[in-house]
Amino acid sequence: MPLHLNIKADILSKIKSGVYKENEIIPSEMDLAEEYKVSRPTIRQAIQGLVNEGYLERKKRKGTIVIRKKIPQEFTNILQSYNNEIKGKGLEPKTKVISCKLEEASNEVCDKLNLKEGESVYKIVRLRYAGDDPVVFVITYIKADILPEFLKHNFTKESIYNVLSSYNFPIISITRYLEVMKADESTSVLLDIEMGDPIFRFISIGHTYNRNPIEYSIAKYRGDLNSFVIEIDNSKNV
């Protein structure tokens, strides 16, 4: 194995074991070159590999700092449940249901789900975790008239998408809108971050057969724990 990969693996081991702690500056390239008895370019390669993978961050006039590795979310490319995605990253997904009720749809929800004024929706408010860290706060609205027994399900353990599929209303396509904003007071408390910290806000409209909108969700993701993978395939046009 090339020297820089051996050194990269050793530094990563020290990060994971807590020798180099989160928000701590690791030794300089010169000190590391002396420690490992290699050239500075070799150290630079090892460090850059860990920067690229999200374990380290270079700070001007400070040095290289250990950062919390972000969760690469891929739901922007594929349709899958939160639980399956988090499990796929080797983490333990957990869900806390804050509220789950039937209510009259607001004008905003009526517009997104093509409902008439006065029609009802199910409103499910959840806080979702990866391990012990709260990752995303999400409010979901589901059309109620076609799903009379929807609230009988336990959304602490069951996926909304799986439940919809069980009623023969699978999510076939999703339209998503993304914006970056600052956490307000309530969001900061729920996601265990500082007020004003950056968050990713996704608005999603899930469609079942014939582009019929059935789900409308507003999800707020922690900016310090999440990154998003967006893949564009242009092969059909080449």
UniProtKB/TrEMBL annotation:
The keyword Endoplasmic reticulum does not apply. PROSITE patterns: HTH_GNTR (PS50949). This is GntR family transcriptional regulator. Keywords: DNA-binding, Transcription, Transcription regulation. It holds the Pfam family UTRA. PANTHER family: MANNOSYL-D-GLYCERATE TRANSPORT/METABOLISM SYSTEM REPRESSOR MNGR-RELATED (PTHR44846), MANNOSYL-D-GLYCERATE TRANSPORT_METABOLISM SYSTEM REPRESSOR MNGR-RELATED (PTHR44846:SF1). The lineage of its organism: Bacteria, Bacillati, Bacillota, Clostridia, Eubacteriales. SUPFAM superfamilies: Chorismate lyase-like (SSF64288), Winged helix' DNA-binding domain (SSF46785). CDD domains: WHTH_GntR (cd07377). It comes from the Bacteria. Residues 1-69 form the HTH gntR-type domain. The keyword DNA-binding applies.
